[in-house]
């Protein structure tokens, strides 16, 4: 594997957040989960800060790279190129399969209209959607829709969100606010604190059900 992208398969307690980029959870650590929304931090950085007591990896789409600086991501960041750089012949690791095995939880934050549509219909044409398509539905997958209000209100959106919930994925609903595009209404990604609390809750209940 390329240096800087070492992937340890021996981690029995991982989980994964993907925020067009994702993260992975693991072991409890010292940081407060409520240390988020600090001055100057993007949503992505706040989310990562809050979840860093877990073991985390981030997977990004190519388009998502426009919305943050890779150097501000303090964990391993995977993108489409890594999948193909790692695989040259049959004995090589297949990144999307290794990542889905390693992670205990996947969080897609934000989930945009494009990827929502792909996931609802089973399309897997990049690293993110391949991991989701290969995801073991017994492990939690949380998604945070985020899009323009009119896109959110289009009837296809409710159908597609309903399809994801039918797969067993957990929706962290979007909220109403003034969006970056200037529109006011539903479609903004849930607050970081809400997302972090939901991740904690799901891990708590999932860990409990695994033990019983
Ligand atoms: C400035 C800008 C902001 C965008 N914000 C969103 C958004 O919040 N939600 C959304 O569904 N699409 C948004 N889009 C459109 C997506 O970037 C576009 O559908 C893209 O193809 C998504 O690719 P991906 O799903 O592979 O990341 C935005 C586009 C631009 C140029």
Description:
This protein is of the alpha/beta class and 212 residues long. The chain has a single domain (16-211), classed as Rossmann fold (3-Layer(aba) Sandwich), CATH 3.40.50.1950. Helix content is 36%, strand content 16%. The protein is built from eight helices and nine strands. It has a five-stranded mixed β-sheet, sandwiched between helices. A two-stranded parallel ribbon has the order 3-4. Strands 8-9 form a two-stranded antiparallel sheet. Helix 1 (43-51) packs parallel to helix 8 (192-211) and helix 3 (95-102) packs across helix 5 (127-133). It is globular. Mean pLDDT is 79; it is low at 1-16 and 18-39. Bound molecules: flavin mononucleotide. Flavin mononucleotide is lined by residues 20, 61, 63-64, 112-115, 146-147, 151.
| Structural class category | alpha/beta
Largest sheet: 5 strands, mixed
Low-pLDDT stretches: 1-16, 18-39
DSSP strand (E) fraction?
15-25%
In short:
This protein is α/β, with parallel strands linked by helices. 36% of the residues lie in helices and 16% in strands. The N terminus is likely disordered.
Provide the fold topology.
Blueprint: E1 16-18, E2 22-23, H1 43-51, E3 57-59, E4 76-78, H2 80-86, H3 95-102, E5 106-111, H4 113-121, H5 127-133, E6 141-145, H6 149-153, H7 155-166, E7 170-171, E8 175-178, E9 184-188, H8 192-211
Parallel strand pairs: 1-5, 3-4, 5-6, 6-7
Antiparallel strand pairs: 1-2, 8-9
Helix pairs in contact: 1-8, 3-5, 4-7
The structure holds flavin mononucleotide.
Residues 20, 61, 63-64, 112-115, 146-147, 151 line the site of flavin mononucleotide.
